[in-house]
Amino acid sequence: MDQTNPTTSKTVSMGGTACKNESAVVPSTPPSESFSKILIVAGPSGVGKSTVIKKIMECIPNTFAFSVSHTTRQPRPGEVDGINYHFTTKEVMEQLISEDKFIEQCDVHGNMYGTSKMEIERLNSENKIAVLDIDIQGCQKIKKRHDVLQMNPVYIRIKIAYEELEKRLTGRGTETPESLKIRLDNAKAELEPMPGFFNLEVENQVVEDCAKELVSFLETVGVLGLQEDGSSHATCIK
Ligand SMILES: Nc1ncnc2c1ncn2[C@@H]1O[C@H](COP(=O)(O)OP(=O)(O)OP(=O)(O)O)[C@@H](O)[C@H]1O
């Protein structure tokens, strides 16, 4: 893990070429590649994906929306259909899979989860950037199907030193010793070097800095427009 920069350190990759960017300067030349309004945010559990996205959504309202996944698992107390998940049955899910309605789907502990094309299209039709919080395997599945899906999402990975994850997950107070161990074991795969895969890799040491980097990058690649006065939305993130 690169620890050279006290706040952020990232690898920038556009159009298939990757370059290590020690000084954390956002590339100034927009790439020729045209991205869809789909933001895929990967990174190990506890790295702060939700925290960073929440910060961005607060500062830039009505612009981003989380894609709501389908699942066959039972709703937990307080979870609302259509908000937390589209809760559905195994039969319906299998039917949708056979009709190729998902851009990715997986089974976890006997339950099925999937991101539907319809959900992404719905958000894009509302002029929202669809945000997908998915694991590395899901990212790889989607990337393999770019041609079929006719979608070119922006892939971003949020990272942090492995040792810090344990502190954050413990501090969040949501994990049992067993679930903490599973998340930390999975974190190793989520932090594996994947040269050229992500369009941006950014460390989340300070939430605001990480959010600013992400926003500046989206502006650079044209997924997010600038503010009316021509300034970056990053200036709003405090
Ligand atoms: N930059 C940061 N510095 C310190 N703590 C942070 C930072 N970013 C997030 N946290 C804290 O770390 C914990 C994990 O963050 P968060 O829930 O956003 O992670 P996540 O990547 O979305 O996890 P999951 O994939 O499990 O949903 C939270 O308690 C959050 O407040």
From TrEMBL:
Looking up InterPro entries in the UniProt record yields:
GK/Ca_channel_bsu (IPR008145), Guanylate_kin-like_dom (IPR008144), Guanylate_kinase (IPR017665), Guanylate_kinase_CS (IPR020590), P-loop_NTPase (IPR027417), PdxT/SNO (IPR002161)
Record's superkingdom? Eukaryota
Molecular-function annotations in GO:
GMP kinase activity
Q: What is its EC number?
A: 2.7.4.8
Key word Magnesium present: no
The answer on whether this UniProt entry bears the keyword Transferase reads yes
Enzyme class, broadest EC rank: transferase
| Keywords associated with the record | ATP-binding, Kinase, Nucleotide-binding, Transferase
Guanylate kinase-like domain sequence ranges: 36-219
Q: Which family does it belong to?
A: Belongs to the guanylate kinase family.
Q: What is this protein called?
A: guanylate kinase
